[in-house]
TrEMBL record:
Function recorded in the entry: Modifies, by uridylylation and deuridylylation, the PII regulatory proteins (GlnB and homologs), in response to the nitrogen status of the cell that GlnD senses through the glutamine level. Under low glutamine levels, catalyzes the conversion of the PII proteins and UTP to PII-UMP and PPi, while under higher glutamine levels, GlnD hydrolyzes PII-UMP to PII and UMP (deuridylylation). Thus, controls uridylylation state and activity of the PII proteins, and plays an important role in the regulation of nitrogen metabolism.
Boundaries of every ACT domain copy: 661-754, 786-860
Cofactors (names): Mg(2+)
Region Uridylyltransferase, residue ranges: 1-333
Family: Belongs to the GlnD family.
EC code: 2.7.7.59, 3.1.4.-
Protein name per UniProt: Bifunctional uridylyltransferase/uridylyl-removing enzyme
Disordered: annotated span: 315-334, 630-655
SUPFAM superfamilies attached to this UniProt entry: ACT-like (SSF55021), HD-domain/PDEase-like (SSF109604), Nucleotidyltransferase (SSF81301), Nucleotidyltransferase substrate binding subunit/domain (SSF81593)
Entry superkingdom: Bacteria
Underlying gene: glnD
PROSITE patterns cross-referenced by the UniProt entry: ACT, HD
Record Gene3D superfamilies: cca-adding enzyme, domain 2
Notes on the domains: Has four distinct domains: an N-terminal nucleotidyltransferase (NT) domain responsible for UTase activity, a central HD domain that encodes UR activity, and two C-terminal ACT domains that seem to have a role in glutamine sensing.
Length: 860
């Protein structure tokens, strides 16, 4: 039965002004938020649009045969403060086009006048079905169609036919939907790991939650329901708060908005907000994985059933009959109590999780080793029935955990299944503090817990390099476990690691090794990139901390696995070469060999000697550029063209470049480090490492030449990379360096001009960088004082540090530069005029002067 358009709900807010005022009052009500506010906003909008439909129908002369339908998020009643209005004007085709156009204009224009985003269409039911058949997104929107006003029968008929079409076409449309979800995930990333996530489009976001509703509507499969509605609600609440705080229709939770959004939701801070969002996204992602596997299983079963059905109908005992061959229900044993069935790992019929406390770890290890997912039913049965493990764990439980961690990439999915049902925190209670914990450092690509699992995955590939792979894998899993506690996470982690290692059954000696690995998991990379490896104090300090060759071997592999699991900026062939060099030196000391004496002059290569002689004879700087690669021994270089002619061809197996080495020999004079760094900054070269030392001139020089060489020659060895574009020519670098040294090129002014030019353009909004920090590293060297600088990386930073050290009146023996994402951590070995370490008071003053110079405006 059709409904007259005149009988639609009346509202006192029919005019735009009345609706706007009512809408504003609703959004400002602090007592009403979340689902009640979204529902109230949808109801208010329904009444307004219904009144517009009624008035428009009267004007256009349309008595019946038209309906206003909400689709998409509006159809679900999920209106956020700045959401689009997705509306369909449905008609039966009886009205003429001009009348329909007038009716549509009467509805759409007031919406546009309000400044609301509108996604609208005017269609008959057949046209709506046809468009849905061609456009998957339209069909998904129609699955949530909800009647607003007008002819209710039209809306009901459309919903019935759209749902019938969807269920009939599900075997074809669901794979299309799955591909759409995967493409969106690749484009927007995973919500549960992003520092600035898109709440709607990223994997695990609102789009995926909507896709799960669509799958359920197909009747082919259904998502795990536990917690799913709450996860969706939390994401919608965050989006509401984001809309209200920004006043914009945005779904991206930018860094600068997070504290305000957290406050609006009653959360402690931005980290608490992100953790809540990550937990919700993780639940939706896991539900999506489980549901899509079920869809694939059902579709695969239908495909396999068709030939069997045809054979049965063909009769005469065809080979495809029910009693022939293997079927989808066949079970293959994987471990005690664990079998494979239909592409998943399930529990055997005879399994007794209530009597077998090791069964959860055994099932997980079997699944990871087989590269198969754990079935949802199996995980939930284990969660509900499994007995807690005794403390300490029995040897089998420990071995199964190590087997799980050593399975490689397949460990991740199995671990996520256990974590989704709370089994991980039951096995390892300390895991709760790191679960879904965000990492604000942009170098990190994962949350703390996922980073730990990824480190174990990376460590599994390095297990052949160590004598105790079990300790390596467990250390990888625990190395950042202290990040959930206050203070230095390495110190806190050492204590936690001791407790966990003892709980899972390691003996006292192994517990001590694991505690050392966790306490010093950053030692090698920080020392290699920030300390002078030619200083015997550096090597001895690492040897004392590590204690044994076996522990050093494990720490080396853990360092690489940790960095590889962090992100691209945390590891490179260059960093790997520095760490390997440090490990070789420490190994020699642990084996009883003496550390190199820094007071002994370093051996000068033939090329360095040639450059030094030429620099002294010409009285100016001499430069050489070379590529270094892993396959070349120390001191030998390849040609510059190895790295400047573009990337290697596909399939190339040539050595990987670890940086471009720039050698500069220059007659000794004040300010060389700062001047050279400034020239490199002008040419947009990023400095990865720097070393400065005096070079002895060869004894073959005649007496006159030797007499003139009293001033000596400095050799600067840099590892550089082009900020963008190609490397500059050595001749241009030499020319600018020569001009800078003689004062005709004002480096300070040029860098200040560039900084001022940058400030003219609006930069990407974000949190302000913390101020620089300059400290004295006590006990790092017996022959020099180590000044450590931590600051936001910026063009000319090394130049400014060099100038500050020059003004402080200290000599720089060497510099060690490390850049991690946007952060620079640089160490400078400095001495006084006599070549001795600085007195403590003097060192503190120098550190203060450098920090003050970095805090001031560049060029001031």
């Amino acid at each position: 039965m059709t409904e007259s358009l005149e009988t639609t709900t009346h509202t006192t807010d029919s005019g735009p002004g009345g609706y706007a005022a009512a809408r504003l009052r609703l959004l400002q009500e602090e007592s009403r938020s979340g689902p009640p506010r979204r529902t109230a906003l949808a109801d208010l909008t329904d009444r307004w649009l219904a009144a517009l439909l009624t008035g428009g129908a009267e004007t256009a002369g349309i008595a019946r045969g038209a309906a206003l339908v909400a689709v998409g998020g509006y159809g679900r009643g999920e209106l956020s403060p700045r959401s689009d209005l997705d509306v369909l004007l449905l008609h039966d085709g009886s009205a003429d086009r001009s009348a329909l156009a007038a009716l549509a204009d009467h509805i759409w224009y007031p919406v546009w006048d309000m400044g609301l985003a509108l996604d609208h269409s005017v269609r008959t039911p057949d046209e709506a079905r046809g468009t849905a058949a061609e456009d998957l997104k339209v069909q998904l929107g129609l699955l949530d169609a909800r009647h607003i006003a007008g002819d209710a029968a039209l809306t009901a008929d459309l919903r019935t036919t759209v749902l019938a079409d969807w269920r009939a076409q599900a075997p074809r449309r669901l794979p299309e939907l799955h591909a759409l979800c995967q493409e969106r995930a690749e484009r927007h990333g995973e919500l549960q790991f992003l520092l600035e996530p898109d709440l709607k489009e990223a994997r695990g976001g609102l789009r995926d939650a909507t896709a799960l509703r669509a799958i359920a509507a197909s009747w082919l499969a259904d998502a795990p329901r536990e917690g799913l509605d709450d996860a969706r609600r939390r994401l919608l609440d965050a989006r509401d708060a984001l809309h209200l705080s920004t006043g914009r229709a945005t779904d991206r939770l930018a860094l600068q908005e997070q504290d305000q959004v957290a406050g609006a939701l009653g959360l402690l801070d931005a980290d608490a907000l992100l953790r809540q969002i990550y937990e919700s996204a993780r639940l939706i992602s896991y539900a999506s994985d489980v549901t899509w596997r079920e869809v694939e299983r059902v579709l695969r079963g239908r495909s396999a059933a068709r030939p069997r059905l045809r054979a049965l109908l063909g009769g005469r005992g065809g080979r495809g009959g029910a009693g022939s061959g293997a079927d989808a229900g066949e079970r293959s044993p994987l471990a005690e109590g664990v079998v494979e069935q239909d592409g998943e790992v399930v529990l055997a019929r005879a399994a007794r999780p209530d009597r077998d406390p090791v069964l959860p770890l055994r099932a997980a290890a079997a699944a990871a080793q087989a590269g198969l997912p754990l079935s949802l039913h199996a995980v939930r049965r284990l969660t509900a029935a499994a007995r807690p493990l005794p403390v300490p764990w029995p040897p089998e439980a420990r071995e199964q955990l190590i087997t799980l961690l050593g399975a490689g990439e397949s460990t991740v999915g199995v671990w996520e299944a256990l974590e989704a049902e709370g089994l991980i925190t039951r096995l390892l209670p300390d895991w709760e503090r790191v679960r879904c914990r965000p990492q604000r450092n942009p170098v990190h690509r994962w949350t703390v817990d996922r980073h730990l699992v990824e480190t174990a995955v990376r460590a599994s590939a390095l297990s052949r390099r160590v004598g105790r792979p079990d300790l390596l894998l467990v250390a990888a899993l625990l190395h950042d476990i202290g990040k959930g506690w206050p203070g230095d996470h390495s110190v806190a982690g050492e204590t936690i690691a001791r407790d966990v290692a003892a709980r899972i059954g390691f003996d006292r000696a192994d517990v001590a090794v694991l505690a050392t690995l966790v306490r010093h998991h950053l030692l090698l990379v920080e020392t290699a990139t920030r300390r002078d490896l030619d200083d015997p104090a550096t090597v001895r300090s690492v040897a004392e901390a590590v204690g044994s060759v076996t522990t050093l071997e494990l720490l080396h592999a853990l360092t690489e696995a940790d960095a590889l699991a962090t992100g691209p900026a945390a590891w490179s062939a260059w960093r790997g070469s520095l760490v390997t060099d440090l490990v070789k030196r420490v190994s020699a000391v642990l084996a009883g060999e003496p550390a190199d004496d820094w007071s002994t002059p370093q051996q000068t290569t033939a090329e360095q000697e040639r450059l030094a002689v030429e620099a002294w004879r010409t009285g100016g700087p001499v430069l050489a550029l070379h590529a270094r690669s892993e396959s070349l021994p120390p001191g030998e270089t390849g040609l510059l063209t190895d790295v400047t002619e573009g990337p290697p061809e596909e399939g190339s197996t040539g050595p990987e470049p670890i940086g471009v080495e720039l050698l500069i020999a220059v007659p000794d004079q004040p300010g060389v480090l700062a001047t050279a760094a400034g020239v490199l900054a002008l040419h947009r070269l990023t400095v990865r490492a720097a070393d400065l030392r005096a070079v002895e001139l060869p004894s073959e020089l005649d007496a006159a030449e030797a007499a003139g060489a009293a001033g000596g020659v400095l050799l600067l060895s840099w590892r550089v990379a082009a900020e963008y574009g190609s490397l500059p020519q050595a001749a241009r670098l030499r020319n600018d360096l020569l001009r800078a040294l003689d004062g005709s090129l004002d480096i300070v002014a040029r860098l200040a001009e560039r900084e001022a030019a940058y400030r003219k353009y609006p930069r990407r909004r974000g949190v302000h960088a913390p101020p620089p920090r300059v400290t004295v590293a006590p006990g790092s060297s017996q022959l020099a004082t180590v000044i450590e600088v931590r600051a936001q990386d910026a063009p000319g930073l090394l130049h400014r540090i060099g100038r500050a050290l020059e003004h402080a009146g200290v000599a720089v023996r060497s510099a060690h530069v490390s850049t991690l994402g946007a952060n620079a951590v640089d160490a400078f070995y400095v001495t006084d005029d006599a070549g001795a370490p600085l007195k403590p008071m003097h060192a503190a003053e120098v550190a203060q002067q450098v920090e003050a110079a970095l805090t001031s405006t560049p060029g001031a």
